[in-house]
Write a structure and sequence with these properties.
Helix content: 55-70%
Distance between the termini: 32 Å
Number of helices: 6
CATH superfamily of the largest domain: Winged helix-like DNA-binding domain superfamily/Winged helix DNA-binding domain
Number of strands: 2
CATH topology of the largest domain: Arc Repressor Mutant, subunit A
CATH architecture of the largest domain: Orthogonal Bundle
Radius of gyration: 19 Å
Strand content: 5-15%
Order of helices and strands: HHHEEHHH
Largest sheet: 2 strands, antiparallel
Structural class: mainly alpha
Strand order of the largest sheet: 1-2
């Protein structure tokens, strides 16, 4: 079920907060996002309702404050989001994306070393 959940950019911001630290209150989310988004309590509440309807978030309202918890893991939704991004922007081509990043000098030496390792590991798996 969770693999089919898609998140808007705003929903990703809220989910990242919940993945980094749970549970969170609305007030805590407003404070955490104030510099980045300036979203009001109402805006965050509406987005949380949407995430609850998708099955991505749950609320515990048994205490003094409503506490929000993630119901999905980042690893459950990131692959589909990555595929969607690649499809939309680079016609599904990882090579085109990397070429664009390399052309803009957006890859650090650490990034390049990490990519070499990923490719080497993928080659080894392909040989098995």
């Amino acid at each position: 079920m969770s693999a089919q959940i898609t998140l808007s950019d705003g929903e990703w911001k809220l989910m990242k907060l919940l993945w980094d630290e749970e549970p969170r209150t609305i007030a805590g989310m407003v404070a955490a996002l104030s510099d980045d988004t300036g979203w009001s309590k109402t805006t965050i509440f509406v987005m949380l309702k949407r995430l609850m309807a998708k099955g991505a978030v749950r609320v515990d309202d048994s205490g003094r404050q409503q506490l929000y918890y993630p119901l999905i893991a980042k690893d459950d939704v990131a692959p589909a989001e990555t595929e969607s991004f690649l499809s939309r922007v680079y016609d599904g081509s990882v090579g085109m994306m990397l070429s664009a990043l390399a052309g803009r000098h957006a890859l650090s030496e650490d990034d390049i070393a990490a990519l070499r390792k990923i490719l080497s590991d993928a080659e080894k798996r392909g040989e098995e």
